[in-house]
Design goal:
Layout lengths: L7 H5 L7 H15 L8 H17 L2 H10 L19 H12 L18 E7 L1 H6 L1 E12 L15 E2 L8 E6 L2 E6 L8 E2 L12 E12 L8 E4 L15 E7 L6 E3 L2 E9 H6 L1 E6 L5 E6 L8 E4 L15 E8 L6 H13 L6 H18 L1
Parallel strand pairs: 1-9, 11-15
Antiparallel strand pairs: 2-7, 3-6, 4-5, 8-9, 10-11, 12-13, 14-15
Helix pairs in contact: 2-3, 2-5
Length: 377
């Protein structure tokens, strides 16, 4: 079977929209199934193993995959794609498969160790709702591992150099045999680097990095919310022996506001009004987060719990245009301190009530009366 005769996606049994993780999972599953060591003497399985390896070798590379998606197999014929159409697999992936099949008896998969990227770091920052509304530029101080200034990250004492490892002869891996199988593993002497430091740097003790406090500038854009993550590329922990640094991720936490509660781009607040305003109607003025006063018109006869909306008076849309809404929940407040005059006026009002003024109350008591009548009949 030739991989050029069958669509690569069909070979790997995935959709053309499959992401990198899906591709790798499908490849590992098929490679384990058709691996020659699992199917000794089976020429068809060996051919299938080579075919899926070739397919994965193409699709795991973004440039090769783009060329294949556009031109198909022709992309790798007559030099069109510039890629190698031969059937081979990434050694790290094969090492993962061997480890899955045969266990970790030899300390993991083979292959020369690549420079280990520095660790990503997390920083939790608390900001106010006002900061989230307007955005802000600020500074943080973090203690991270940075490249050693004495040895420039090499780990070797200045004036000295690394030498090739005598055990693996600079390859970074050694072979060990288990029964019929020869397994490669990282060299225990140089830890897969292929080089040995005879004179470690005294400042960093051969690590190539030291801990140092750093002041970092952080830009917080308008509209951020709880859990928004800001990435500072290359500001994480430095990698060992001059390897690239990781990233710093800043997670934002917004403090509780005295007036507003936030839900997405909407700002919610509760506004108490007197029962006379609720009955007769009126208006209230609420200052927005931008300092602009927003007039909210209260219709006559409004009830507690009714929500009124002011369009465009909420939070900015993160990395977008426009703003959300301000939502005002009306709370009708019953007076607790009345003058004699006010009490007298209320008594006069009570004497003029017909029941039509509060239809919900009248309807409720009519239901109770009806239910009571049904029970007594």
């Amino acid at each position: 079977m030739s991989a050029t005769e069958i669509d690569f996606y069909e070979l790997l049994e995935v959709e053309r929209t499959a992401d990198e993780k899906t591709l790798k999972s499908a490849y590992r599953k098929l490679a384990m199934r058709y691996h020659p060591d699992r199917n000794p003497g089976d020429a068809e399985a060996e051919a299938k193993f080579k075919a899926v390896s070739q397919a994965y070798d193409c699709l795991k590379d973004p440039q090769k995959r783009a060329a294949y998606d556009r031109y198909g197999h022709a992309a790798f014929q007559q030099g069109m794609g510039g890629g190698n159409g031969g059937a081979h697999a990434d050694f790290g992936d094969i090492g993962d498969i061997f480890e899955t099949i045969f266990g970790n008896a030899f300390g993991g998969g083979g292959g020369r160790a690549r420079p280990r990227r520095g660790a990503d770091l997390r920083y939790d920052m608390e900001i106010s709702l006002d900061d989230a509304f307007h955005g802000k530029d600020t500074q943080i101080e973090v203690e991270v591992s940075v490249a050693c200034g004495t040895c420039q990250g090499t780990g070797a004492e200045p004036g000295t150099a690394k030498r090739g490892c005598n055990l693996c002869h600079g390859i970074g891996k050694v072979r060990a045999q288990q029964g019929l199988f020869v397994i490669e593993k990282p060299c225990p002497n140089c830890h897969g680097r292929g080089e040995v430091i005879e004179h470690p740097c005294k400042t960093c003790r051969g690590e190539g990095r030291v801990d140092e406090a750093q002041q970092l500038d952080v830009n917080i854009p308008p509209g951020v919310d709880n859990g928004t993550r800001i990435r500072l590329s290359g500001k994480g922990e430095a990698g060992p022996m001059g390897a690239p640094p990781g990233d710093l991720y800043i997670f934002l936490h917004i403090r509780k506001h005295a007036v507003f509660e936030r839900e997405g781009t909407a700002l919610f607040t509760r506004v108490p009004v007197s029962f006379t305003v609720a009955a007769l109607g009126g208006s209230v003025e609420i200052p927005g987060m931008d300092g602009t006063p927003h007039e909210i018109t209260i219709p006559a006869g409004i009830q507690s719990g009714k929500q009124l909306r002011k369009r465009g008076a909420g939070m900015p849309v993160l990395q977008g245009r426009g703003r959300g809404d301000m939502v005002v929940e009306i709370i009708v407040e019953t007076p607790t301190k009345l003058s004699a005059k006010q009490k007298e006026l209320l008594r006069e009002f009570k004497e003029t009530e017909t029941g039509e003024e509060c239809p919900e109350s009248r309807g409720f008591f009519d239901k109770i009366k009806s239910a009571w009548t049904d029970l007594t009949e």
